[in-house]
Design brief:
Length: 195
Amino acid sequence: MTTPVQTFLDLAHCLTLVDLVVLGDSLVRKKRCTPDELVALAEKHRGPHSRLARRAARLVRAGVDSPMETRLRLLIVLAGLPEPEVDHRVHDGDGTLLRRYDLSYLPFRLIIEYDGRQHAESDEQWLSDIGRDEALDDERIRRLVVVSRDIYSTPANTLARITRAMRRAGMPVPRLRHEWRRHFPSRSGDIALPA
């Protein structure tokens, strides 16, 4: 038996950067460790693939709800775009949770969310989403929705959508780095250049 953190470090030899961060986010979500604990132990780790483990540990965040949210965040970050806030929560005056946003740039009134199949298949989720979208419209907050195809098949198009939304929101958009291509290959139907 090894600790969750040691397992994370050990798996650096067989997982990609993205998959290792997915694992780290999952360990944090399940309260097996904190991002700071992962970083601290990864910094001490030596041997094969220790650089990958250190880099992945530094990309782990608390509050990530799913592997696809991690993948979406990493598509954004590895393209060189500003890192969004993870898991922003909106409460009413009594402290009751009203909404939470997967990824957000709230100073620019932009949120980016991953929607899985349950958003299309559950009537309850669908009705909840309609109400949330109307509330966001009232607050003039732009909600950009990403689905699995956008990450696995058309990441360049997804980055184009994200950068377009950022520009419309008045955000400064840096020139994209190409590192994302190594981790998110395009499939048939994707655009050539995202910007």
